[in-house]
Amino acid sequence: MSATVIHAAHALTPLEEIRDAAIAFEDGRISFVGPRAGFVARSDAKEILARDATVVPGFVDVHVHGAGGHDFMSATEEAMTTVASTIVRHGTTSAVATTVTAPPDETRRCLESISRFILKNAEYLPEPIAQIIGIHMEGPFISSVRRGVHPAGAIAKPSASLLDRYLEAAGGTAKILTLAPEIPGAMELVERAYAKGLVVALGHTDATYEQAHTAIFKGARHAVHVFNAMRPFSHRETGVIGAVLTDPSVTAEIIADGVHVDDPAIRLLLAAKGTDLILLVSDGTAATGMRDGCYRLGTFDVTVTGGICRNREGKLAGSTLTLDRAVQRMVRLGVPLIESVRMATYNPARRLGMEDRKGVLRAGADADLVVLTPDLKVANVFVRGTPLM
Questions:
Q1: Cα dihedral angle (116, 92, 280, 251), rounded to 10 degrees?
Q2: Per-residue pLDDT for 330 more than 70?
Q3: pLDDT in the model for residue 127
Q4: So where are the chain's domains?
Q5: pLDDT score of 276
Q6: Residue 34's pLDDT band (cuts 50, 70, 90)
Q7: What stretches of 162-207 adopt beta strand conformation (E)?
C-alpha cells in the first residue's frame, strides 16, 4: 500500500492535541503523527489537504448489537458485513459484537459464527468496514428483575460449565461478559471469567452496594449502560450505581442519546468518574441507520418510532445511536472535544487492552482515522489506511 499523509488543522491523539498536524500511514499502520513543521513526506506519498478538519482515531464501540437492518445474532456473513459497513460511515472502525440472552444452542451457534467472521477479517478487510475485534456476551447470567428486554425464559443460572462451552464456541474472541453479581453462583463466575482474561461487567443487575463491591473486589472492572437496567440509586442503599460511581477501578458505559439517560445524570457520572473512566457506547440495534419500523433484536421483535427502539411491552430495547452523535452530544454538554473523543476511542480500547493498536493516533497503531468537519460531522473514515470515501 502506498504511503498517505493527511494535513489537518488539528489531530487529537486523543491524549494530546496537535495543531497544524500531519498524520502519515502506510501498509495499514500509522508511521508519523506530529506537527507539520519539519515533517518531510515520502516523495511518492499521496497527500490529502484537510486544513479545516480535525483528525481523530476511529471510534471503538464495545456495546453494539446491530445496524443497517441486521443483528449480530443472526450471525450470517451478510448480516455482520452490513452491520460493519453501516457503523463505519459514522466513524466506528472497531466494534465488539454484542449478543443478547438466548437459549444455549442459539447462543453457541452465534458465538461460533461471529468468531469465524472475526478471525477471517483479523488481518485483511476486503473493503473499508468496521473491524469486529471481539464478542461481548450480554447475558445470560443476568437478573430477572432488571432484565430489561432480555427474554425471561432464556436467563440462566450462573454455570461454569455453560460459560466454558460459550468460551469454546467463541474460539478466543470473547472479550466482555455482562452478569448480575447478586445471583447465587455469580461471584464464582466473576472470578472464573476474570481469570480467563474477560472484562467482567456489571449489568442487568439488582445488586446492593455490598454485592457490587464484592464483585469488584473479585474482578469486575466494568459497568454496562450505567443507570439503565440497574437497581436505582438511593441515599441509604446506593446499590450497584453507588459502587460504580465511587470505585476508580471500574469503567462505566453511557448511552448518550438523550433517551436512555437524562443530561443531569450524565453530568453526575462525569463529576464522579471523570472522562478517563467513561466509555461512550451505542447499544445500537438493527434499526441503526434505518427508518422507523419493525426490526429484530436477538430473538425478539422491536419497534422503532421517532428513532426510539422499544419492545412490545414499551420497554427501551437498545438504541439507534451512533458514536459520532454521542461525541457531538457530549460536546454540547460542555465536555471538551478531546475528552469527548477519548471516551469513544482510547478509553474503550484501553478497557480491552488494545490501546497500543486501536483508539489512538501513534506510530505503529492501526491507521483507523476519522476526519471531522468543524461542526463535528464525519467527512471521511480510514480503516487500516483504506479510505471510505
A1: 40
A2: yes
A3: 86
A4: 4-56+372-387, 72-358
A5: 98
A6: very high
A7: 174-179, 199-202
Q: At what angle do helices 77-87 and 104-120 cross, to 10 degrees?
A: 60
Please indicate whether the domains covering 4-56+372-387 and 72-358 agree at the CATH topology level.
no
Give me the long-range contacts of 343-347 (CB less than 8 A, separation at least 24): 343/275, 343/278, 343/279, 343/280, 344/59, 344/60, 344/61, 344/279, 344/280, 345/14, 345/56, 345/57, 345/58, 345/59, 345/60, 346/14, 346/15, 346/57, 347/251, 347/275, 347/276, 347/277, 347/278, 347/279
pLDDT for the residue 380: 98
Secondary structure tally for the chain: helices H, strands E:
10, 20
DSSP state for residue 97 in the 8-state scheme: E
Share of the chain above pLDDT 70, in %: 100
Q: How much is the mean pLDDT over the chain?
A: 96
Closest CA to 347 of 363, 334, 330, 364: 330
Q: pTM of the prediction?
A: 0.97
Q: Which three cell numbers stand for residue 242?
A: 453507588
pLDDT-based confidence at residue 1 (cuts at 50, 70, 90): low
- CA–CA separation, 62 vs 203, rounded Å? 14
> Which residues are catalytically annotated?
283
CA distance 37 to 128: 31
* pLDDT score of 129 more than 80: yes
Q: Which three cell numbers stand for residue 153?
A: 425464559
Question: 72-358 — its CATH code?
Answer: 3.20.20.140
Distance CA 189, CA 323 (A): 31
- In this structure, the number of other CB atoms found within 10 A of the CB of residue 389 comes to 10
Check whether 124 has a pLDDT greater than 80.
Answer: no
In DSSP terms, 67 is beta-bridged to 70
215 — phi, psi (to 5°)?
-60, -40
Whether the Cβ atoms of residue 59 and residue 370 lie closer than 8 Å to each other: yes
For cell 491507521, name the residue: 367
Domain 4-56+372-387 superfamily per CATH? Urease, subunit C, domain 1 (2.30.40.10)
Element (DSSP H or E) covering residue 193: helix 186-195
Distance CA 74, CA 262 (A): 32
- Cβ proximity of 203 and 230 under 8 Å: yes
